[in-house]
Write a structure and sequence with these properties.
This protein is mostly beta strands and 97 residues long. It has one domain: conserved putative lor/sdh protein from methanococcus maripaludis s2 fold, CATH 2.40.420. Helix content is 0%, strand content 32%. Strand 3 and strand 4 form a beta hairpin. It is elongated and about 80 Å long.
C-alpha cells in the first residue's frame, strides 16, 4: 500500500521584471530594428492618410527591450515605421501600400 502525502517542491525557475528607473511623461515608440539608444537615426514617419512616409531625423534616448524614448524629432500621434527599412536608405520619401 502507498500513502499519498503533500510535499513542497522547490521551484527552479523565476520569471520577473526588474525596474531600474521609472520615467514619467515620456514620448516613446516600439524599439526600431535599427539604431541604439542615445543616438540620432533617420526614421520614416507616415503621412496622415498612411499612403506615404518621409524620413525624419529622430534623437533616441533611453531604451528597454521593447520601447525607446524619443528625445526629439517626433510628436505625440506620429506614426512611424520601426521595421527594417535599410532597403530604402537612399530614399527620403517612400510610398506605402
Amino acid at each position: 500500500m502507498v500513502r499519498c502525502q503533500r510535499v513542497l517542491v522547490p521551484i527552479s525557475a523565476v520569471d520577473g521584471t526588474i525596474v531600474l528607473e521609472r520615467l514619467n511623461d515620456v514620448l516613446n515608440v516600439g524599439r526600431p530594428t535599427f539604431g541604439q539608444g542615445q543616438s540620432t537615426i533617420g526614421i520614416f514617419v507616415l503621412s496622415a492618410d498612411g499612403t506615404e512616409a518621409e524620413r525624419r531625423q529622430v534623437t533616441l534616448g533611453r531604451y528597454s527591450v521593447s520601447t525607446v524614448e524619443i528625445v526629439s524629432g517626433l510628436k505625440e500621434g506620429d506614426r512611424v515605421i520601426v521595421s527594417d527599412t535599410s532597403t530604402y536608405d537612399s530614399y527620403n520619401r517612400i510610398r506605402v501600400r
